[in-house]
Design a protein that fits this description.
This protein is mostly helical. The protein is built from 5 helices and no strands.
């Protein structure tokens, strides 16, 4: 009974977390998703406002999920990385700009703002792209 349970759990784990290669994150798909999220969010946001931004992020997540395949959590994780990558890039630019303009005080203010920015993006945009990635990985059917 215990051996069957252990094998069944291992099978479920493999189905959910299945990836290609050794890494959970497919960096190519995450980078392409980041670029598409920027493009789609700007284009759809221009025409449809805030809802358009969310639609653009969701579509970018679906593309990431289609590229990655695998399990639901693999698609979600790659979509989340793609959505959060933009926040990290903007935070680095904010840190550099704050340090150049105001020295140590600017660096401190930019560091606090960057942490809040990254947390906000993880909760909002990263989640939307992640859900799109999960749906895209389900659609792709790749193993």
């Amino acid at each position: 009974m215990f051996i069957w349970f252990k094998l069944h759990i291992k099978s479920i784990y493999k189905d959910i977390f299945q990836t290609r290669g050794d890494s959970l994150v497919n960096w190519t798909a995450a980078f392409v998703g980041f670029i598409l999220a920027v493009i789609f969010a700007n284009v759809f946001g221009y025409f449809f406002g805030f809802i358009g931004i969310s639609i653009g992020l969701f579509l970018a997540g679906i593309v990431v999920g289609l590229m990655v395949g695998g399990g639901v959590l693999t698609g979600f994780g790659n979509g989340l990385v793609a959505g959060a990558f933009g926040a990290i890039v903007i935070s680095i630019i904010l840190l550099i700009g704050g340090t150049i303009t105001a020295g140590l005080v600017g660096f401190t203010a930019a560091a606090v703002a960057s942490i809040m920015w990254i947390l906000t993006i993880f909760v909002t945009s990263g989640f939307v792209v992640g859900v799109g990635g999960a749906i895209g990985s389900l659609i792709s059917g790749k193993d």
